[in-house]
Structure formats: C-alpha cells, structure tokens
Write a structure and sequence with these properties.
By secondary structure, this protein is of the alpha/beta class. It has a single domain, classed as Aldolase class I (TIM Barrel, Alpha-Beta Barrel). The protein has twelve helices and eight strands. It has an eight-stranded parallel β-barrel with strand order 1-2-3-4-5-6-7-8, surrounded by five helices. Helix 1 runs parallel beside helix 2, helix 1 packs parallel to helix 12 and helix 5 packs across helix 7. The longest helix has 20 residues. The protein is globular, with a radius of gyration of 17 Å. Belongs to the triosephosphate isomerase family. This is Triosephosphate isomerase. Pathway: Carbohydrate metabolism; erythritol degradation; Carbohydrate biosynthesis; gluconeogenesis; Carbohydrate degradation; glycolysis; D-glyceraldehyde 3-phosphate from glycerone phosphate: step 1/1. It is an enzyme of class 5 (isomerase).
C-alpha cells in the first residue's frame, strides 16, 4: 500500500487582519517543526502577499480560496490562476459549498477551474458534498459522483491525482456537527473506489480530505480512518492553538504510518 502523508489545510474564509494573520502564521511556524505531515493556509486573497512574505522558504504552503476559470480578461472582481501563482500559491480551493450555494460555482465550472488550476501549476482542492436534504434522502453517493465526474471529464482520470479531493458534507460545515468517522470513511472509501473503477493506481495515490467541523477533539478519530488523508479546516483554523493541535495529530499519524 502506498503511504499518503496527511495534509491539513486552513480555510480561513473571510476572516483575519494583518496583525491576526501574522500571529497565526508565526505561531504555526514555531509549533509545527515536526512536519512529516503537510500543512497549508488559504487566507483571503488580499493577504496572499503577507502569507508569501512570512511563509516562503518554510515547511508551510499557502493557497487561494477560489480562482477564475480564465487567465485574464474583463472579469471584474475575479482572481486568475496566474495571479495566485505570482504570489507563490501552491494550492487553490475549488467549488466550496459556500460558493456553490451562492451560484458562483457549479459542477461543470468546477471541472473548468480544476483544469485551469492544473494548467497554471496549482494544486486544486476540489470540494464535494451533499446538503442535509440529500443526506437524509440517502443520495450522498449520487451527489459526490455527480460533482466529481465533470472534473474527470475535463482533465482525465490520470490528472485527478495531481489535485486533492475534499469531502465536505454541507450539513457539517460551520454547524459544529461533524460527520461520524465511520460515515466520513465510508464516503471517502466510496470516492476512492469510484476513481479506482477508472484507474486503480490513480485511486491509490489520490489525496482525500474530510472537512466539516473538524476540531482537536475529533481530529484523531477522523484522521485515523484509512481513506481520510487529512482535513480541510474551517472554524478551527481561526484559533491558532486548535489548528496547531490538529496539525500535530496529523503529523503523529503520518509518522506512525511511515514507520509501519
């Protein structure tokens, strides 16, 4: 079995200021010196320059929370993948439910953004997941396949492993109600299996994250699941101590896995 290092990503959403960001990033640099696991921060776009200045040359990566499908043009208010690259971004979040719900993203446009991110040398983090109604109707499997297939159509199955897939049930985002480790594992195992139907080797190396009310209390149980390769962290990324604790849990699990 191929060993996949845990990846922990902070999605700071529309939070932070220059002072708070500096304290958060400097604290993270000091307290994550053990880094068999991988860490990344996605701040609001105006603070990417600050992230670049504080984190360049370190063990912590950074990225954007969204990007346009287009490299340039008359798209007021948008940020191009080339702009993210110029600020040293490694990652970019694609298709977060908070953008899907406001009509900014859909399944097809996420496929286009995923492709554009890869073309620009970025690692896209594709968010997929069901609403509460879809969950209660037992449609989770159908929803995640519907959201994933347009991406596969755009980039081909081999390129999926160049990105990251984050399962984020909409009903667990910002609600404090995380999916059980068993539910999250079942869905991520299903996603890996779906990819494996097209290419088993790609499925084995693709990084799959769980997101949705991950915190220091439940992180160990969630990240211990065999198909959960890390977390896309929202609320807990606003408190440095909480996020650092999750990073340390991910690192310990990675070290244990690598030593096995």
């Amino acid at each position: 079995m191929i060993s996949r290092p845990k990846l922990v990503v902070a999605n700071r959403k529309m939070h932070g200021n220059l002072s708070d960001n500096r304290q958060f990033m400097e604290s993270l640099l000091r307290h994550t010196q053990q880094h068999a696991a991988h860490y990344a921060i996605c701040p609001p776009h105006p603070y990417l320059y600050q992230a670049q200045q504080l984190l360049q040359g370190s063990h912590i990566a950074w990225g954007g929370q969204n990007m346009s499908r287009f490299e340039r043009g008359a798209y007021t208010g948008s940020v191009s993948p080339l702009m993210l690259r110029e600020f040293g971004c490694q990652y970019v979040i694609i298709g977060h439910s908070e953008r899907r719900q406001r009509g900014h993203d859909n399944d097809e446009s996420c496929g286009e953004r995923f492709e554009a991110a890869l073309n620009a040398g970025l690692t896209p983090i594709l968010c997929i997941g069901e609403t509460l109604d879809e969950y209660e109707q037992g449609e989770t499997d159908l929803v995640v396949v519907r959201q994933l297939n347009p991406v596969i159509s755009h980039v081909g199955i081999e390129a999926i492993a160049k990105g990251v897939i984050a399962y984020e049930p909409v009903w667990a985002i910002g609600t404090g109600k995380a999916a059980t480790p068993q539910h999250a594992q079942a869905i991520l195992s299903f996603i890996r299996g779906h990819i494996g139907l097209l290419n088993e080797a790609v499925a084995e190396v693709t990084t799959l994250l769980y997101g949705g009310s991950v915190n220091p209390s439940n992180a160990a149980q969630l990240l211990s699941m065999p198909d959960i390769d890390g977390g896309l962290i929202g609320g807990a990324s606003l408190i440095a101590e909480d996020f650092i604790q999750i990073c340390k849990i991910a690192n310990q699990l990675t070290e244990t896995k690598l030593a096995a």
